[in-house]
Amino acid sequence: MAIVLIYFHTDDSLHDFKLFTRKLYPSRFESGSRVEYSEETQRLFLVQSREVPTSSLSLFDYTPELCPFDHGDYYSSNNSIPGSSNCCCFNKHQPVKLESYFQLCPCHKLCLTLDSHAAACAAHELALSRIFRKKFIKYAKSIAGMDSSFENVDSSDEIGIIWIPFVIEIKLEYPKQKIDYSWFYRIQSLIILKLKSEEAMALLSTLGGGFSALGDYYERHSLEAGKIALRQLKIALTICDPLIAARCYLYVALSLMQRGYLRESKDIIRKQYSFAKGHFIKDYRLIAMCKGLWARLKFMYYLQKLERQGIPCNVQHGILSNFCLNYNVCNILQPTNGQDESIIQMRVGAS
User: Fold this and answer.
1) How far apart are CA 292 and CA 219, in angstroms?
2) Residues 8-29: pLDDT tens digits?
3) For residues 45 and 56, what is the distance between their CA atoms, to the nearest angstrom?
4) Beta bridge partners of 17
5) What DSSP assignment string belongs to 143-189?
6) What is the third-level CATH fold of 197-310?
7) DSSP 3-state assignment of 47?
8) Any idea what the Cα angle at residue 128 is, between residues 125 and 130, rounded to 5°?
9) Whole-model pTM?
């Protein structure tokens, strides 16, 4: 049986309520019930809803809200409504929902006024901790007087009364806003640093992308792209963003790959791929970048193998332009020197 009710409200609405047993275990009202707060009377009401078949409805249960039609001519002396087959609300296959109102009246009551922020924390802890409930009730009794008056009880016959032994009413107060200027200045400096870093990263990414594209043709451009990637890495470490730092490492790996340092590039790609797979934030774009660079690295190793075997080959935009008709390669068109890659057709067959 519930004997403790704690509810939080403002002047016009009920925000939350907690119901507990004698030993302060959580309890609740019957299913299908709800609690409403009356702004005019400042009282709590329990609304119980039930569905009844239309065949059992009587004149006592009937209210005009059940049907838009007037049934005054059908009332009979035996408290029933004849002619129900002509009424939309007396379809036997559609039960009618009725509501009963009960006023929740406290035997003993405590009234508190709390800051909205503190009240939200208290409501959260009341729902979780039984120890906190005991200490909260003890604290409420120590700072608020006990009220056992019954002046606010509605004695109307139309509304039932449910007595609750102990009620704590908590009225929410709008919190006093205090500006924390020291914290504001710290956050402001971090935001400005973040915005400037993002702007610098965007500019360096555009510039580095151009140098990296030319790095397939000229080694000095590839070297310059690597220097730009190191600058981006420094910015990423300054703003403590590990995902952006991982991308910068991949840019460095691409620069090393273009200049022939395949083993160093392979170590960087492996480390960054392992980091991207194990990070709690799954950056699928970073994983795709690792896979793309790994595919290019395999191709570069393949070209290195061909050169060791004495097969002349040239790479422009990652496409073979000169190749002999050996080693599983046939039907290759004339070299295009990287000007029209779409017409290159390569078919790998059995040797």
Assistant:
1) 21
2) 888 888 888 888 888 888 888 8
3) 27
4) 7
5) HS--B---TT----TTSEEEEEEEEEEEEEEPPPP---HHHHHHHHH
6) 1.25.40
7) strand
8) 95
9) 0.44
Determine which helix (DSSP H) or strand (DSSP E) holds 265, and give its type and residue range.
helix 262-278
| Domain map (residue ranges) of the chain | 2-53+86-173, 197-310, 311-351
Q: Which of 94, 7, 77 is nearest to 46 (CA)?
A: 7
Structure token digits, residue 74: 């059908």
Residue with tokens 């208290």: 122
Query: How far is it, in rounded angstroms, from Cα 150 to Cα 109?
Result: 10
Cβ 11 vs Cβ 35: under 8 Å: no
Distance of CA 343 to the CA centre of its chain: 49
**For residue 329, what is the enclosing H or E element?**
strand 329-330
The amino acid at 181: Y
Q: What is the pLDDT of residues 222-237, one digit of tens each?
A: 999 999 999 999 999 9
Burial of 23 (C-beta count, 10 Å sphere; 0-12/13-18/19+): exposed
User: In angstroms, rounded to a whole number, what is the distance separating the alpha carbons of residues 258 and 297?
Assistant: 10
- Token pair, residue 348, equals 């790998």
At 118-173, the pLDDT tens digits run 888 888 998 888 899 888 888 888 876 665 554 455 555 557 788 888 888 888 88
Contact criterion met (CB below 8 Å) for 19 and 2: yes
Is the pLDDT at 7 greater than 70, yes or no? yes
For residue 69, give both structure tokens: 């039609």
